[in-house]
Amino acid sequence: MSSLRASRRRFSLTLITIFSAAAPLLAMAGIYGVNAYSVAQRTREIGVRTALGASAIQIMNLILRQGIATAMIGIAVGALLSLALTRWIQSLLFEVSPVDPVTYCGVALLLVLAVLLACWIPARRATRVHPMTALRYE
Known about the structure:
mainly alpha, 6 helices
């Protein structure tokens, strides 16, 4: 009977591990898609900014700031939800507190790095927009 209970727990933990590994990849893909679409929609604006003297670093900072602001909201909501679900999480953890601050900070840092990586590609592409091409866009 105890081996059945252990195998069920092992199966649950395996599923949680798989989903936990897939979550950052899915988040990066979604953030990249939304940010790339946003940059494509703002091509004219970026061209005008460039024509008026904005540097590539300023354009990149603008786009990265937008992605980070969205990510911070998501991280805050996710942290609050995970704190609300600590009773359920506690039954699945061994030798780790469900409100371990190191884990929460580590996950938040991992997500911020994932967002920066996902936003960097569209931001880099936006810095290469030629003002005349952008103004003729659409």
